[in-house]
Here is the input.
Amino acid sequence: MKLKYTFLLKTAAQDPDHDPSNARRVAFEDCEVELLFSEHHRVEALAVYLPKVRLPQKDGKFYVPSFERHAARAHAMATFFANLLYVQTGEGELLRASAPPRFLADTKEEGAFLKTYLSASFAMPVEWTSSAAEYDLQPETIERYRKVANPLIMYADACRLTDPISKFREFYRALEYFFPGFSPGRKEQFDTAAATYLSGLDQLFTETKIRRFRVLRDKCSHAQGKFITSAHLPALGRVRQELPTLQQAVQLLLRNPPPRSSSAKRFARRR
Here is the structure.
């Protein structure tokens, strides 16, 4: 039996040439993800199909299982695709599940159970007004971003934030993810490692630049020494000044991750 979760999505992703009456499915791990379109050719929702979901039996009868594990996996997958659309179109926010999960039978026995005990349909009307942008869900694109799924979440979350201090912290967290293994006492080694790799992609990212990112992040994160709050206008100006460059660094890393920074763990195994 399959289990279908549908999520409302706010995104600029559109496909003017696609028939909006037809959903578009893409394979992802052992599952399928379906893009649902509005009549204006905009992606308005996505559905995640989890395969091989078994209904437990007791005394020869089916009963409805707990959805917690399945819901967590479906949410992780939906979040990944929302973030994937975000980095391509500039807008992609997973809003909420549009309805309870829907069972899809694989056998006549399961079908009879569903017909008797479970509803198999629901509606999800939604419309958004926003800019439109093209997107790419080719298998190679999905796989490339799947390998950096964790920093992709951090990057997209940072883009959605409006507070510059919080935004800076989250972008730095994504940067930090790509260069693991440096304890608090090895800050200079982190600067060197990040600069050595990033400067090969763009000479702007010198060790001095990475150190500036790190020092500002520390001041944004810790309430000791010369820390930064939204009331400190000159320091806040420095944060705003460095934000676009820090974001650019993370964008480069998402497209060109260091060889050992893969985060391609199966969503099914995440807790």
Q: What stands out?
A: Confidence is low (pLDDT under 50) at residues 119-130, 261-271. The chain has eight helices and eight strands. The beta strands are 2-11, 24-28, 31-37, 43-50, 57-58, 61-62, 92-97, 102-104.
